[in-house]
Amino acid sequence: MNTLLISIAVKHLLARKRQSVVSLMGVVLGVAFFLAISTMMLGSEADFIHRLVDNTPHISITDEYRNPHRQPVETAYQGGAVEIRSVKPETETRGIRGFANILDYLRAIPNLKASPALAGEAVVSFAGKDVAISLNGVLPAELATVSTIQSYMTDGAITDLIANPDGIIVGSELMRVLSLHVGENITIAASTGQIHTFKILGVFHTGRASYDQSEAFVALKRVQSLLGRPNRINSIIVKLADPYAARDMAARIEAHIGYKAVSWQEASEDIMSTLMIRNIIMYSVVSAVLVVAAFGIYNIISTVVMEKQRDIAILKSMGFHAVDIEWIFVTQGMVLGLIGCATGLPLGIAMMLILESFKFHVPGSSDPISLPLDWSWYQFVIAAAFALVSATLAALLPARKAAHVQPVDIIRGAA
User: Fold this and answer.
1) How many domains does the chain divide into?
2) Residue 23 falls in which region: left (phi positive, over 0), alpha (psi -120 to 50) or beta
3) Which of 259, 284, 309 is the last residue of a domain?
4) Each residue of 266-301: pLDDT tens digit?
């Protein structure tokens, strides 16, 4: 019986070939565009988060407090009419106090790696040119465990700073701007007035021109000397085995040590919110394509129901039940949905391959990039399921209308 119902449904579609093909093309293009656009948008999001997570500390601990310390008079007279103005903090050498104990505490936490750093502003002088940079004092052996900078090295290695404490690692853009070469000496002047000559031991290239020109890495002891901060650091870089646990871990660390600990999620909260809104807009737009295609299916099946009133009456007179009639027209929507999915998915894959082959330059990047795509299997399932469900639902209303046709009225009217 089911084979007979499917046969009748297919014959109805073939009776209006042009309209059926147009409706089918709507489903095919809807599935293809849904797949191509959604995988491109989700791929770019995944790529962005991957770069964000890999290229920034999972948690950054700085020599600041989230909230200013309360003044003694405010503590003594809580709730009183007390107002303090123009309180000038005591001049001191900034830095994280007792950082050795803090590092011991952090390193005792499982699946966590931490490394101290001291960053300050400096000026590079070479051949009469001066360029402002951010000078990062690091422990070379530990930096490789908490940073991905080693993967961007085009010449030398971060660990070369161990053998030569007077060495420096700079970016490729700074090398280009100052016409420098590996092995040459450059003079760096710190904001304290201290001047020191360093030998270029290595070069990194991240593809971000601003970073490659403004960042430099030096042994921690040398930067402490240049900035006049002996045995001081102003930040601790933390990497976790699970980056998505950074928010909870940052809150735990801050509650224990007091200093401000910022997770990568907190630092990029506005960006993450923007990505979520972008996904909502993306799914709304690509889903609209399939909704429009569903209206095409609704139109053709409604037309078939109107034209086949007499045939429906005859089928009911022969013993077909209302549910059988409804199944015939729902099957037509399912057939269009299945064929549309079977054709649209390969077309979508072809579009994805074409998009992935494109390479172009974007502002702020010195290297050509390609469109990142998300090839996860669930994207194909979502596209196919949405198309099949929308096609079936589009056929349901006219199918119910056909199921309620009264054969006596149709045959009597025809007579």
Assistant:
1) 2
2) alpha
3) 259
4) 887 777 777 778 778 877 877 777 777 677 677 766
